[in-house]
Amino acid sequence: MAKKSKTNAMRLLDQAGIEYGFYEYEYSEDDLSGNHAASYLGISEDEMFKTLVARSDNNLLSIFVIPVSANLDLKKAASASGHKKVEMIHVRELVGLTGYMRGGCSPIGMKKPYPTYIDETCILYDRIYISAGKRGEMLSINPEELIDFVGAETADLTK
């Protein structure tokens, strides 16, 4: 049996000596939601986090990582990132800006280091689940190690 290749996020975590768990799930182009992944893996939607990319009023990008059970509050996101306003980027821009596809966007290993903000609820858990950087693949990681590794700040980001 062929060995699974590691994603960029996994290679970076390995290089940094950060422990993580790896999980695979079946996905469909019709449902790329984190809710589906959480249900498939039997994980609480509050512990499964999605990675969103937004652009500020002065054309700067920021990354927001929030539970799949929640919606990003754009006013809170703007405030946390020090901008007057932010809006979600169009999905067609995602690969070019981050190197990741919709349904497989990880806060680890993007093309460029962008300011990253993780919802403050992450610290309620010993481990949270994030995309491994490929559809159908998830990582579990200690949230404090993730925050340190990507240089993130925590904030109240959800509605």
Structure report:
The chain is an alpha/beta fold and 159 residues long. It has a single domain, classed as YbaK/aminoacyl-tRNA synthetase-associated domain (YbaK protein, Alpha-Beta Complex). It has 5 helices and 8 strands, in the order αβαββαβαβββαβ. The longest helix is centred in the first third of the chain and has 9 residues, at 8-16.
Q: What global shape is seen?
A: globular
Which architecture would the CATH scheme give at its second level? Alpha-Beta Complex
C-alpha end-to-end distance: 45 Å
Q: What is the number of domains? A: 1
Average pLDDT for all residues: 94
Uncertain residue segments: none
Query: What percent of residues adopt helix (DSSP H or I)?
Result: 10-25%
Task: Write a compact overview of the structure shown.
With 159 residues, this protein is an alpha/beta fold.
SSE layout:
Elements: H1 8-16, E1 21-24, H2 34-41, E2 49-56, E3 61-67, H3 74-80, E4 86-88, H4 94-98, E5 116-119, E6 128-131, E7 137-141, H5 143-150, E8 153-155
Parallel strand pairs: 3-5, 5-8
Antiparallel strand pairs: 1-7, 2-3, 2-4, 6-7
